[in-house]
Amino acid sequence: MTGYKKRTVILVISLIALLGLAGCGQSGGNGSGENLTKEQKIDKGLDAFYNLDDGKVQIEVRTDYVRHQPSEGQKAEGFNKYSYKGTFEMGPVRARGKLNYENDSKKGSREIYGTDGAEFKKEKGDKDWKQDIYTSKWRNQPTGFNRDFIAFLQTKKKDITVKEDKKTYTLRFESTDIKLQDENVDLFFGAMFRPIIVSSSTDTGKMVAELTVSKEDNKPLSFKYTCNYDSSTVSGKFKGVAKYSEQNTGIRVEEPKGIDKAKGY
Description:
Layout: H1 3-22, H2 38-50, E1 54-67, E2 77-90, E3 93-103, E4 107-115, E5 119-123, E6 130-131, H3 147-154, E7 161-164, E8 168-175, H4 178-183, H5 185-189, E9 204-214, E10 220-230, E11 234-245, E12 263-264
Helix pairs in contact: 1-3, 2-3
Protein name: Lipoprotein
C-alpha cells in the first residue's frame, strides 16, 4: 500500500471515529472516574482529550541520538531539546507562545504563532516576524497532540491499557509498526515539534503514548511520548511531555501585531 493510500485509509477511519467522539459531549460532567470500568475509562479519557478546546500548555521535549557512522568532523552523539510555554485553541488550531531550543551546537529562543495554514516566528532580538513558507503546517502546531490522533486511538481501544493512582488514570498505547509511524509522522509527533524523524530505513523501534486524566473532573492533564528507534545509521531516544492548565476556560489566541508584514523564509 502506498503512503498516500495508507494516509487516506487512516483519515477515513479517523473521520468515522470523530463522529463517535463528538457525540460524547464535553469532558467532565459525570465526575469521578473512581468506579468506572476499564472500557469506560478509555472512552471518557479519549473523550476528554478530543474535547479539549483551549487552554495553556507547557511542552518539554528531548531527543538523544548516536550516529553509527559519523562523517569526518561530525560528532557521534547529539541531542535536540525544546521547552515551550503557550496558549492554544483546537478548532480551528491556533497556538502562540515562547520556545527555547538547544542542540549540541547551538541554542536560542523565539516567539512563535501558528495556525493549521500558516506558521510564524520571531527570534530573540528580532523586530519583525517571519513566515515559514516551505514546510507543512497541518498537524504541526504546538498543542501537544493532534485531535486526529485521538480519533486514531478510538479505533485502537483494544490495544490501550489503563493504569491509575489515587487522583488520576492514564491510557497507554504502544506501537512497533515502523511503517505506520513513518507514513503518519505528523499525525503522531507534529504537535510536539516533530522531534524525531522515523523513516523507511528505520529497522526497529517502539512508540509509547500516555494520556493522563484526572478522576475528579475528567480533565486532560498531560500527554507523554516515550520512543526509541534503531537503524544501521543512527539510534535515537525521545521523551516528550505536554502538561495542560486552564483547560476549556475560553482562552483565545490573539494574532500578534506585525504578522501581516511578515516576510517568508
